[in-house]
Automatic annotation (TrEMBL):
Pathway: Cofactor biosynthesis; molybdopterin biosynthesis. It comes from Devosia pacifica. NCBIfam families: Glp_gephyrin, molyb_syn. It comes from the Bacteria. One of its GO terms (molecular function) is metal ion binding. Its EC number is 2.10.1.1. Residues 176-315 form the MoaB/Mog domain. It is an enzyme of class 2 (transferase). GO terms for biological process: Mo-molybdopterin cofactor biosynthetic process. The keyword Amino-acid biosynthesis does not apply. This is Molybdopterin molybdenumtransferase.
């Protein structure tokens, strides 16, 4: 049986991802979205030379320790001083206020002794002190956020400061998820003999949702041709950008998903990948819809979605590929066979740095071990096994890294 190498499978998937399409969204709705165009500043920030302190705007050359100078006015944020200061003059100024003409430094009020309309300072000051020069943060016309930036609190605050009420972001795909299996019941129902509670769709939706316009749960379809044809044709006709099935991907008589998809016009790009868990992964397309047939085993479904669908979504949005981490093992790993192994692990921070602890459980139906993991250790094909301290590649499962 020929199994496609993992890297080749990923390359084939990424090659089917369409180019980024942009749409305009208001600033308030842009959290988590990805910029489809670089963001350029419309103005200088600050727009004027501004004081960084509450104190006095001075001509630095005029200031001598203990020598009184005349206070001729006030500049406050939103109401600047409407004149120019000349030799021997200063202006009372507040944080964020425009520096008056003629001034070139600000002395904080804690270093000033004020008496009526005179003020003296305890020491001299260098020109530029406590002044934020115009355009110091960003200059009009400059690129302040590159295309492909995933917008979050800091970049959105910057976009607002740059006076950008609308942003050009990547359109996100609409995703449909369909579970297959005669044995499946919904969470909350009572288990009859031989039944299993369906879990895959409940993990896949939150795994993918932050990159998707919507993730729609299409329910459970039974393992007979008629039901599968009905459910899959409806799903394929619903205009999803990405359709995901779980289960029925292997070689048993009930594993009919691939046959039915093909009958419905899906072109299969590949089936079966040289990995564990997740070997029976299928990928195809019909028109603009990409179709992922994930294995039914819960760990296999989540691992294949992490390894293949998340990178496809990143590409869809114009995000750079997520880089795995390089970390020392905190325990041993056993020799691997010929399939690339995505081994559950936990990232642990110790006094000596960050390490990854392998979780020995490799059963592809064992969800509690996956839930206790926050990383997948990528064990290469035919790896002889690792010792504590060996450096390994690690895919963090934490969304913050994705
Ligand atoms: N003779 C062979 N048998 C199997 C092979 C093989 O190569 N030759 N591959 C094995 C591997 S590897 C995997 S993975 C599984 C994948 O099987 P399917 O994708 O056909 O999945 P099912 O048979 O439908 O289900 C497997 C397992 O997962 C449970 N399941 C299914 N859907 C869900 C769901 N939505 N939520 C929770 N659990 C689900 C299902 O009850 C089964 O226990 O095939 C091996 N067999
Ligand atoms: O490779 Mo399967 O996906 O063992 O569970």
């Amino acid at each position: 049986m020929s199994l496609l190498p993992v890297d080749e499978a990923l390359a084939r998937i990424l090659a089917r991802v369409p180019p980024v399409i942009s749409e305009t969204v208001p600033l308030e709705q842009a959290d988590g979205r990805v910029l489809a165009e670089p963001l350029k500043a419309q103005h200088n920030q600050p727009p004027f030379d501004a004081s960084a302190m509450d104190g006095y705007a001075v001509r630095a050359a005029d200031v001598e320790a203990g020598q009184p100078l005349s206070v001729i006015g006030t500049s406050q944020a939103g109401a600047g001083f409407d004149g120019t200061i000349s030799q021997g003059e200063v202006v009372r100024i507040f944080t964020g206020a425009p520096l008056p003409g003629g001034a070139d430094a600000v002395i904080m009020q804690e270093e000033a002794d004020r008496k009526d309309d005179k003020v003296s300072f305890r020491s001299t000051v260098a020109a530029g002190r406590s002044v934020r020069p115009r355009g110091n943060d960003f200059a009009a016309g400059s690129e302040i956020l590159p295309q492909g930036t995933r917008l979050g609190p800091f970049s959105l605050a910057l976009a607002a400061a740059a006076n950008a009420p609308m942003l050009e972001v990547a359109r996100r795909p609409r995703i449909g998820v369909l579970a297959t299996g005669d044995e499946l019941i919904l969470p909350g129902q009572t288990l009859a003999p031989g039944q299993i509670v369906a879990s895959n769709s409940y993990g896949l939706a939150p795994l993918l949702s932050s990159f998707a316009e919507s993730t729609e749960d299409l329910g459970i379809v039974r393992d007979n041709r008629q039901s599968a044809v009905l459910a899959l044709s409806e799903a394929l006709d619903s205009g999803f950008d990405i359709l995901i099935t779980t289960g029925g991907a292997s070689v048993g008589e009930h594993d009919i998903v691939q046959d039915v998809l093909q009958d419905l016009g899906v072109e299969i790009d590949f089936w079966r990948v040289n990995m564990r868990p997740g070997k029976p992964l299928m990928f195809g397309h019909r028109g603009k819809t990409l179709v992922f047939g994930l294995p039914g085993n819960p760990v296999s479904a989540m691992v294949t979605a992490t390894v293949f669908i998340l990178p496809a979504l990143r590409r869809w949005l114009g995000l750079a590929e997520a880089q795995p981490l390089r970390l020392p093992l905190a325990g041993t790993t056993t020799p691997n066979g010929s399939r690339r192994h995505f081994l559950r692990g936990r990232i642990v921070t110790t006094e000596n740095g960050t390490v990854v602890l392998p979780i020995p459980q490799t059963d592809s139906a064992h969800l509690s071990s996956l839930a206790s993991a926050d990383a997948l250790i990528i064990q290469p094909e035919d790896d002889p096994g690792g010792a504590e301290g060996d450096l390994v590649w690690v895919l963090p499962l934490d969304q913050a890294f994705q």
